[in-house]
Write a structure and sequence with these properties.
Elements: H1 32-53, H2 64-74, H3 81-93
Length: 95
């Protein structure tokens, strides 16, 4: 008696792990500060995710130097002190 096996492909190794998301334009008519804060939050989120992926789980170990080095590795502009504080806050509140 032959046993039928069903195989499913959960992960495709040939494709990159990160998928690009189709970006939508930001809403018009907001004050400039809104756009700056929005983009700062997005940058802080990307940096926090990269630091967590690299093994930085405590805000105390996420120094400005380490955050800026991660930004350099990712190919984005070095974050300001305010953005570095936001990265540490995201790591802190994610625990």
């Amino acid at each position: 008696m032959a046993v039928a096996t069903i195989t499913t492909k959960l992960f495709d190794i040939t494709q990159p792990a990160a998928r690009t998301v189709q970006r939508k334009p930001l809403p018009a008519g907001q004050p400039r500060e809104w756009y700056e804060t929005h983009n700062r939050r997005l940058k802080a989120m990307r940096l926090a995710i990269a630091l967590l992926d690299s093994g930085v789980y405590h805000p105390a170990s996420a120094t400005n130097r380490k955050i800026r080095a991660t930004a350099s590795l990712m190919g984005i502009h070095p974050p300001s002190d305010t953005t570095c504080r936001m990265v540490r806050a995201l790591i802190r509140y994610g625990r």
